Amino acid sequence: MAEKIGNVWVFIEQEAGKIADVSLELVCKGRELAAQLGVKTEAVLLGDNVAGCVDTLFAYGCDNVFLAEDSRLEPFTVLPYAKVIMDLIRAHKPNILLFGATLKGRELAPRVASEKLGGLTADCTDLRIDDFEDKKNNKSYTNKLMQIRPAFGGNIIATIVNTWDDPQMVTVREGVMKLDEPDFGRKGTVTPVEVKLTDAETVIKVLERVRADKEVDLKGAQIIVAGGYGVGSKANFKLIYDLAEALGGEVGASRAAVDAGWIDHDHQVGQTGVTVRPRLYIACGISGSIQHCAGMSESKKIIAINTDPGAPIFSVAHYAIVGDLNTVIPQMIKAFKAKA
Ligand code: FAD
């Protein structure tokens, strides 16, 4: 008799009861994978007083929510979270477990994977179900999770398959998977989880949490003005801020600008930064490396300003402005203000 396939699980990240967008994106993707496998989509929701999140999870496609509520699970610390998730994995044997590639996900997923002695593919940009032929060992597998991610600095796209143990675990970049429309008419079940923790697992205490003054919301921004190494200096980034302010947008950056210390990493767009899909992306003094384009090429309209007519950014741009950003940006601001 064929072995029963386990369900698709999504670790739900929440902060004060607000679910992270990436978790909802993964619920939508998880639902698609589960439909192909003929299994259920289940959420793993940990925290204190978080039951209010359940209806949203149903609306985005969860069939069941494992709900672990305990004051020791708030705020997030990795040891108790890993313990609760490991207990759940042993009891229910999921087939697939998806984490967001966020600060929390990147800390938690490897901890769970090493405890389970399972595999983990980090920073996936796509996932699908397929059969897999292991020609070397003359074995074939059906319905495995194809874990797709850029490798070797983005020069190849690798497909990774875990054939040795379930759950097949991955982290997925924020903003990569599509968010479907929620259906608040959908309902599911809640499985309460008994939280069993030792003193050793709760040894880390969070004494204070300090929020950054202003959080950068690149993912939610409809307009992004991004500066690269061509901006030339930290002081000159004022031009990028001025244009963003004139258009009511956020400021993005290439890694070269971040590495030069001209702007914080929170603003970085690309393979090791944020993936964005704004209505308008203005790339100023950015060459258009494969790693940068990986994070912005799906923007609805792209304007690129570059002195080099052969810059690769022009191959993804809808509008190309060959020119010096020090001349072009002030003209754009002036023209926009004259129209506004
Ligand atoms: P450059 O490549 O130096 O380009 C500067 C551009 O500015 C040039 O095209 C030049 O013609 C133009 N210019 C110069 N002066 C002016 C002017 N006055 N007016 C107009 N144009 C001007 N990069 C990212 O951005 N995001 C990532 O997430 C990322 N992840 C990476 C991950 C890995 C594993 C690796 C290996 C690299 C990654 N990179 C990433 C780095 C990436 O390869 C490039 O080095 C980087 O994107 C280059 O940034 P840039 O285009 O600003 O700089």
Textual characterization of the structure:
The protein has 340 residues and is α/β, with parallel strands linked by helices. It has two domains: 8-201, Rossmann fold (3-Layer(aba) Sandwich), CATH 3.40.50; 223-338, TPP-binding domain (Rossmann fold, 3-Layer(aba) Sandwich). 26% of the residues lie in helices and 27% in strands. It is built from eight helices and 17 strands. A seven-stranded parallel sheet has the order 7-11-6-1-4-5-12, with helices on both faces. It has a five-stranded parallel sheet with strand order 14-13-15-16-17. Strands 8-9-10 form a three-stranded antiparallel sheet. Strand 2 (14-15) and strand 3 form a beta hairpin. It starts with 7 loop residues before the first strand and ends with a helix. Bound molecules: flavin-adenine dinucleotide. Flavin-adenine dinucleotide binds next to helix 6, helix 7, strand 16 and helix 8. Its cofactor is FAD. It comes from Victivallis vadensis.
Task: Give a brief description.
This protein is α/β, with parallel strands linked by helices and 340 residues long.
Give the arrangement of secondary structure elements.
Elements: E1 8-12, E2 14-15, E3 18-19, H1 21-37, E4 41-47, H2 54-60, E5 64-69, H3 78-92, E6 96-100, H4 103-116, E7 120-124, E8 126-134, E9 139-151, E10 156-160, E11 168-172, E12 189-192, E13 223-227, H5 237-247, E14 250-253, H6 255-259, E15 280-284, H7 290-293, E16 301-306, E17 319-322, H8 325-339
The structure holds flavin-adenine dinucleotide.
